[in-house]
Amino acid sequence: MTTPRTRELYLTMAAAGIPRSSVELVRSAQEAGWNVTVLCTPDGTRFHDLEAIEDLTGEPVRVAYRAPGTGKSLPPPDALLACPFTFNSVNKFANGIADNFVVSLMCEMAGYGVPMLVVPNVGPQLARHPAFSASLATLGRMGVDVFFDADAPQGERLPSWERVIERLGRLGAGEAGAG
C-alpha cells in the first residue's frame, strides 16, 4: 500500500487587507490536504503574520529571489492560489510585469501550465477601472480561474476561506470558472 502524495500549493499573498487571518487560510489549505509554500510581495509582508505562517508551515515565507547556491529550491506545485491579491498585483500578473518575486514566479508558473486561482480583494472604485477588467479578461484567456464578484457588497467581495479552498480543490477538474 502506498501513501498518497501530498499536493503542493504555492500560496501567493499581496498587500491586501483581509477580514480573516491569512494564517487561517494556510491552515484551511493544510486541512484540505495541501502542503503549503507561502510567498509574499514585499509590501504584503506588512499585512500578514509571517512568523505565525512560518510556524504553521515549517518553512520561511519567500519574499525575494534566493541567491544562486543558497537555500533550497521550491517543490514543484500542483496548483497556485493568489489570495488575497491586490489591484496592482492582478494588473502586473496579467500584463507580465514581473518586478517582484511573487509576480515573476506566477508568470513562470503560468508558462508551465500550473493551475491557478486568483482571488482579488479590490474595492468597488478600483474594480471599475478599465485596466482591472481588462486584466481579469486576460487572466481568463490565460486559463487562470478568477474568483471575484464585482457586484458583491464591499464587505462580501472576498469569499470565505472555505469557499476559496473548495474552489481550489476543483482546479484542473474543469469545474472552476470566472466569477
Automatic annotation (TrEMBL):
A molecular function (GO) term: catalytic activity
Highest rank taxon of the organism: Bacteria
Stretches assigned to the Flavoprotein domain: 16-167
InterPro entries membership: Flavin_trans-like, Flavoprotein
Protein name in UniProt: Flavoprotein
Species for this entry: Nocardiopsis ansamitocini
